[in-house]
Amino acid sequence: MATKKGGLRKTSRRAYKGLRKRGNPYKKGSSSFKKLEAQKLAMGRRLAATRRKLKEKGTTGMAAACTASGGAVAGAVSLQMPTIMGVSTPLVIGGALVAFGIYSDESYSNSLACIGSGMLAAGASDYMKNALTYEGAWNPIGQPGLVAVG
């Protein structure tokens, strides 16, 4: 029996029982259900830990690939334009990319910083190779001059 708007109920029965939770709310679950629940939580923790480890390893591999690509870009750039105002081009561009990556908030700034560090490494490698292999250059061994290689 429904009440009219503003009327009082004459029974303690609820007016609508359609979407109520069934069963006794104070009853504990069975032991097998508790075990399954615990296993589900443990699997969730293991999955989260695995995702975290994969993300860490992925970023390390990505950084290595970016650095290697920076070395490749440095080789291509140094063939097209060897120097900028007397300074090696990979050193100039690599330094600019690293500075941009450090001071920028863009989503790709980490990748640019990695590529720039690869260019700096390649430029430093070329500089040291030239310094150690040509006559009259810096000579850490103490010999009068080293023979040019290649």
Verbal overview:
The chain has a domain at 34-133. It is 60% helix and 3% strand. The chain contains three helices and two strands. The chain has a two-stranded antiparallel sheet. A hairpin with a 2-residue loop joins strand 1 and strand 2. Helix 1 (31-80) packs across helix 3 and helix 2 packs antiparallel against helix 3 (109-133). The longest helix is centred in the middle third of the chain and has 50 residues, at 31-80. It is elongated. It starts with 30 loop residues before the first helix and ends in a 17-residue tail after the last helix. The mean pLDDT is 77.
Quick overview:
The protein is mainly α and 150 residues long. The protein has three helices and two strands. The chain has helices at residues 31-80, 89-103, 109-133, and strands spanning 83-84, 87-88.
How does the major sheet shape up?
Answer: 2 strands, antiparallel
Q: Assess the beta-strand content as a share of residues.
A: under 5%
What structural class do you assign from the helix and strand content?
mainly alpha
- What percent of residues adopt helix (DSSP H or I)? 55-70%
Number of strands: 2
Distance between the termini: 103 Å
